[in-house]
Amino acid sequence: MRVDVNAFLGAYPFRRVPGTSPGALLAAMDRVRIDEAWVTHLPGIFWRDPTEGNAWLLGVAKDMPRLRPVPAVHPGLADWPDVVRAAADARAPAVRADPTFYGIDPAGPAMRALATACAEADLPLALAVRLEDGRQRHPHDAAPELPAAAVRALVRSHARLRLLVTHADRPFVEEVHFGSTPAEAARIWWDICWIWGPPEDHLETLFGTVGAGRFVLGTGQPLRIPENADAKLDLLDLSTDDRAAVESGNARALAGR
Amino acid sequence: MLIDVHAHFLHDRTPRTDWRERNASRLRAGERVGITIHVASILGSWGATSPTYFPSLTDLRYGNDFLLGLQQRHPDRIRGYVAVNPNYTAESLGEIARCLDAGMIGIKLAASRRADDPLLDPICRLAAERDVPILHHVWQHRRRDWPGQEASDARELGALAARHPRVRFLLAHIGGGGDWLHSLHDLRPLANVFVDLSGSGVDGGMLEACLDAVGVERLLWGCDLTIETGWAKLRYLERLLPRDDVERVGWRNAAGLFPPGAFPSD
Question: Which end of chain B, N or C, is less packed with Cβ atoms under 10 Å?
Fold first, then answer.
């Protein structure tokens, strides 16, 4: 069983990206032997109301059970608690928020309220540090990257909150992990899509310092080719147990399954 | 056969105390991926005693010598680009001749001077004379100056390539940051500029766009600082292209670009 916790459906507004339909994503998953993907409605991230993509996402996931929906929640909109409840009712593995794209403080009162609601609903909250390399972003794509301080603030805001942080690099992971208590750090899971392999060996280093138990398979597909996550795992000398944990066991723990 | 056209090594006079581990890691990962030859450069002291992209003559010479030593110790695995700083024209020409005579197979220009600057012309003339390619560091669509380098983009490299049609240029790391699509638009008509696929970027659609812009004939496989992204692109190309075309990208194009006899199977 291999689970990709970081996948997208739908068009990207800043460049043409092939393979954004549900069928194309399933074909890409087959290509790299991924059984299940946690999917975000990509265009919604850029909408004033990102939750308007949720109904379509939930419908797709209902028809294609290998795709698990990660509905978006905008805690600056009045009815956001309903979205969290609906996600829990739909047995979503997580909900997501992209505060810097929404134009709200990533560690402000609205996000803290969302963190509390997620914790109380026993629903992980997914956050992306970035979607693209900052050097190549479209001139109109000006949302700041998620600051590490916001992740630290959110994980401290509720003792039962579980966070999935995607697209983080080694310095970001280290800053948050070692800037948190062990109990806090144990409630954060990191996807591997943005962490470098050899010769810098950032992922190997993090597995040794932070522990393989904190990492989950994430590809960022189709914005990124999913072969990358596989290649970096294949370049490690992981035990069978650790590999299985990264590929699915840790994601199951994150989702509370 | 698989040739990484964009590799780097470190040495004992760089800021990295882990330089041995990083060099060993590159070779170890290369074995796992199946890299036959790493065509590498060393940019002076990598910032220890002069800036990475503005290396001093002393640092360049030390780095080039270190790389020659690696090439001699690993004749089955490593080839070198001689790195020079074109602000020192006469010394650059001498260093290129020295290192090519010692067995290096190409020239590396970092970002010490814009690619379209006339100071690069003598270096290109020497490249033509010696029949070696030039790997040029590129910032894909440089919209402004960045600290620490005088980076060029594809348009500036294109101007240089047009002035030197006999020289073969490698546009460095299309996945190495910046707007690669902008570069590809510029490269389409430049028959003597090849696209090095290295870099940490693994954007969906990037490889298809490269193929569309320059065809399989002008693509070169490489890794730069991240071997896993190179391997990922190779795996993706294996799904996208027939085997013969994968071989062209993986090594045949490179074998035709570098001097005869540069690689074991030549």
Answer: C
Q: Which helix (H) or strand (E) holds A69?
A: strand A67-69
What residue ranges do the domains of chain A occupy? Answer: 3-255
Contact A161, A154 (CB under 8 A): yes
User: Do residues B114 and B73 lie in contact, with contact meaning Cβ atoms separated by under 8 Å?
Assistant: no
pLDDT at A25 over 70: yes
Q: Does B231 touch chain A (CB under 8 A)?
A: yes
Candidate CATH numbers 3.40.50.620, 3.20.20.140, 3.30.110.10, 3.90.79.10; the one for domain A3-255: 3.20.20.140
H or E segment and range at residue A216: strand A215-216
- Asked if the interface predicted TM-score (ipTM) of this complex is over 0.85, the answer is yes
pLDDT value of position A257: 73
Best A235, A236, A238 member to test B by mutation, with max B CBs in 10 Å, is A235
In this complex, do A234 and B177 lie within 8 Å of one another by their Cβ atoms? Answer: no
Task: For tokens 């080694």, name the residue.
Answer: A170
**CB < 8 Å from B in window 200-239 of A:** 200-201, 221-225, 227-228, 230-232, 234-235
pLDDT band at A200 (very low <50, low <70, confident <90, very high): very high
CB hemisphere CA count around A243 (13 angstroms): 13
Q: What is B3-257's CATH topology? A: TIM Barrel (3.20.20)
Between chains, do B233 and A225 touch, taking CB under 8 Å as contact? Answer: yes
Enumerate the residues of chain B whose CB falls inside 8 A of the CB of residue A196.
200, 225-226, 228
pLDDT tens digits, A40-97: 999 999 999 999 999 999 999 999 999 999 999 999 999 999 999 999 999 999 999 9
